[in-house]
Amino acid sequence: MPELPEVEVTRMSFADRIVNARIEAVFMGKPLRWPLGCEPGDLHGLQVLGVRRRGKYLLVDLSEGLLLIHLGMSGSVSFSADLPLAGKHDHFDMVTNLGTLRLHDPRRFGAVVYAPGENHAVARKLLGRLGVEPLGDTFDAVAFHQALKLRQTAIKQVLLAGEIVVGVGNIYASETLFLAGIRPTTRAARLSKPRAALLHGAIREVLARAVKKGGSTLKDFSNANGESGYFQLEAMVYDRAGEPCRVCGSIIKSLRQGQRSTFYCATCQKP
C-alpha cells in the first residue's frame, strides 16, 4: 500500500511538469472508491496551479477548486505526453496541453475527488481528521508526547491511526519503532518524554530517508516516471521475520496488530 513517502515521491516526480497545464479532457474508467464529485466536462478549461500533499493525498490545485487523489492499496500515478491507450486498470485520465495525468489502480481502492475548495465539506471529510505532517515544522516533540499520553492503545496502532501524526503507515511504523527502540505493543501513554522524543526523531528520519530512496516498492509501486523505490532493501525489521537482526543478531519476530503484520526485535526494542 503506498504510504506517505511513496505519495511524496509521486508528487515530486511530476509536480513541476504539470504546473500551468490546461485541462482539455477528462476520461473515467470503472468506478473508484468514491465518485469524482462533478461531471468530467466541468473540469475542461481549468488550469493546474500546483500539486501538494496532505498525508497520503495528492492535492492538485486548480484555477477553480482542487482534485484530491488517493492511491488506495495498489494505485500509481503517471504523467506523460505520450502515454499508451488506457488499459484495463487505468481509471482516470486527465488530458492537458502538457501531458496526461493517469491513475492506474488494479484494485480500485484509490480515488480522484473534486472539491470546490479545501474548506468545502467534501475536502474536510477526507482531510479533516488528519494529524500533523511529520516532515513539517509543526511536528513538535513536546506536543507529540502530550498527545501520546492520552492514548491507551498500542503505540503501533496509534501511529497507524494518523490522528496525532499523519502518514506513518505499516512499513514505516515498524521501522521507526525499531529505530527508537520501542516495542510495538507498548501502550502509547506509557512512553516517557525522552522515549517519545526518540520516536519523534525516528519518524522524521525514517520518512525522510524513505523519500530520498524513492519510497518502497514491494509489488508494483512506481512514481509518475515509472521508477521504483528502494527503501525496502535496507529495512531493519519490516518483512524480515525469522531473519537475524542487523544490529544484535536476534531473530526478528512478527505479530498481528489490527489485522496488519508487525515486525520487531525483542532484544533491541523494549516494552
- The N- and C-terminal alpha carbons lie at a distance of 28 Å
Largest sheet: 4 strands, antiparallel
Helix amount, in percent?
25-40%
Shape: elongated
Helix tally? 6
Query: Roughly how many Å is the radius of gyration?
Result: 20 Å
User: What proportion of the residues form beta strands (DSSP E)?
Assistant: 15-25%
Strand order across the biggest sheet? 1-6-7-5
Element order, helices and strands? HEEEEEEEEHHHHHEE
Stretches where pLDDT is under 50 for at least 5 consecutive residues are: none
Broad structural category: alpha+beta
**Overall average pLDDT:** 93
Please give the number of β-strands: 10
How would you describe this structure to a colleague?
Helices cover 25% and strands 21% of the residues. It is an alpha+beta fold and 271 residues long. The strands form three sheets. It has a four-stranded antiparallel sheet with strand order 1-6-7-5, covered by helices on one side. It has a four-stranded antiparallel sheet with strand order 2-3-4-8, sandwiched between helices. It has a two-stranded antiparallel ribbon with strand order 9-10. A hairpin with a 2-residue loop joins strand 2 and strand 3 (57-62). The two termini are 28 Å apart. The mean pLDDT is 93.
